[in-house]
User: Fold Intracellular signaling protein from Pseudidiomarina tainanensis.
Amino acid sequence: MSEILFASQPIYSRNNDVYAHELLYRHENGVSAFEVGDSVATSEVLYNLCTGLLDYVEHVKLPVCVNVSTEFLLSGLFLPLAPNHVIVELVERIEPTPEIIDAVKRWVDKGFRFALDDFEFQDSWTPLLEFASIIKVDIERTSFDIAQQRFEQLSQLDALWLAERVEDEATYERYKELGFDLFQGYYLARPTVVEGKRVPSAAATQLTLVINQLFSEDPELYEIVAALQTDPVLVVNLLRIANSPYYGLSRKIESLKEVVMLLGLEPLRKWVLLIVSVKGQAPTKTKLVLIRAYMCSELARKKDPFNRLSGAAFLAGLLSGSDVLLGIDKETFLEDLHISEHVREAVLQQTGELGKYLTQILDFEYDLAMKKPVEEHGDLFEIYQQCHFLVDELLNNVVID
Assistant:
């Protein structure tokens, strides 16, 4: 069953082409962005954009416009999306203090573009004009005469002018003739609710171990991977993000290490913090799936002294539990993931070398759960005990709410 993920309203150019999409917070219970707060609303919109199983993906082909709060601006974290994919909107309720102006400058130096939303030409906002890529004028609150006067006075700015709340053709033509570059409003298109399947976040788990590794002074790749492996929900979310159009994945992923290398340290830090900031329900069978993944990895290691399939085996074991972790059937979740075929076939059909390992472990799990004798499974019980102990030790480093 589809859920509301967010809403999207296009912004049009003078040639009637879609220039960008503004993403708007929407909740099935009718809770507004104002009620949940700008920081939570922005985090949830971006999280759903890049992890949700969307019913359509037209909005990802163009930049997205998102509102940010004062706290987000001052945090120094920036957004997890690359600057060319996003336009940051400064809403009128932000007070342009010297700290805010310095923060905006730092964002611009990083390559981010800013839109001054609902701009009403208050003097206090003048220092921000030089950093603006787009000036959005709410034409319901600003008269045409004032808009024309300010447009002519500020013609030297290297910014696009956007007429917001265009409700009819006459108004559209009037601002187009004035020289405005962009247009948004019900006359052109109403916001469209984007539906899909919401993927649970890892917010119920305080990822102390992960964050300590990510933000250490000298982070090590293998230690980051080991820390991430303590939370399979976080891993499947990162896999969704790595497969989103914003990262242009060109080769198929075979291990968690490749996900970390693809995203890069700084985006990975931002994504982890954003994911844990989004409220969600902790999966009840995390431990089961983790033990399965480690058992797959250990079986592969024992069969191959060169350890070539260990990472792929861990990923196959983890993804085999995606239905348990996320409440989404495996076929649906894996449909758009750019993973190697032998991992996909192992998860969905239990074929190939990885599929053989997975079948052995699933059969063992069943007999163990049904309290049947497990001697016929050979050394799997010993591997299970080792992995059970390992997972217990790993999870002891993570504080559970």
